[in-house]
DNA repair exonuclease SbcCD nuclease subunit (Paraburkholderia tuberum), 401 residues
Amino acid sequence: MIRFLHTADWQIGTQFGQFEPDEAAHLAQARFDTVRRIAEEAAARNVDAVLVAGDVFDLQTVSDTVIRRLFAALQAFSGAWIMLPGNHDAALVESVWTRAQRLDCVLPNVRLVLEAGVVLLDACRCALLCAPLTQRITYDDTTAFFDSTATPPGYHRVGLAHGSVGGILQDGIDSSNPIAPTRAASARLDYLALGDWHGHLRVDERTWYAGTHEQDRFRANEPGFVLDVTVSDPGAVPQVAAVRVGQYRWHRWDETISVPTDVDALKTRLAELGANDVLRIEVGGTAALADAEALHVAVEQARARVRALRADLGSLHVLPTADDLAELGAQSGYLAKVVARLRGLQEDAQADPQEARRAAEALLLLARFQRDQRQRDSQAAPPAQTRERQQPEAPREGAPA
């Protein structure tokens, strides 16, 4: 029997430039923390090896410090680590892998597979057929040699590769590196461990993508797992269990506001988010001024709780109601004309969308300004009782005037 963890697409060194610097720093750190969690899981489960199916690093140009930190994160598991270059960290003549070797930071139990071939794990009678990428993009199936490659009798045959299974990953694939969908069968593999797709995915009973260990995109494809794989005997169907290790959950919400209850429902969902959530939210539709203000406040309150947030409420049209106008003091006069003009910019189908966006923002700013001004006025005015005491007293009867 063999048992191993299958993982891939760690993308160590990812920059997360779409977020604020402090948010990006936390997301980048999580990728190291989750590697440590994988090492702890491997030790706790007493597996024979951890197979990393490519894209350990996001770039060839990551710093020496990043390289050292990655290998230091593996220390909790003293068993075999098998690392395969992918399209982001291909085994070029000069690569992140050759730099790691020069830095002398690769642990003794870590095997870097920089050339295609077979790696034998004799202790568990397993032959790993490995197809590392030696360039970022290939047009030939690098796993083709698996079919004709002999392995010792009685050894498990496990494939390790990075690329796109034909007919399976047509949308949003990271690279065009092709892998035949029948490879596990034609090469008589017990299991084919793949990387490149960032979610864990069953291709067939012997072919699996592990997905990235820590989610890095707004895509609902089941990231944040490692696969715990057990094969009882050579030729047996593998038993595969997904084990969640990821720290953060990424959400993408595209919302349309039509009625006030839509705002209430969205505020409730926002309130449920916490420190392990990353959110991208875009809101369109139409809302009364008070509802739009409440939604903006709810988004900013969520920003204070979640790990990272990108929000775009610019497509939400703000249309003040009669109550809103009364609250603004904009029922007549110049202010009423300003509000009417801003409403018109949003309702005009021929208007520039950017003008409509700015009009909605102006209405919200106007409401905030009016509210702040009334608050300042109320704080500056003396209380009613004080004003009454300041009035001159009427002379008493018989008193000198």
Q: What stands out?
A: The longest helix spans residues 353-380.
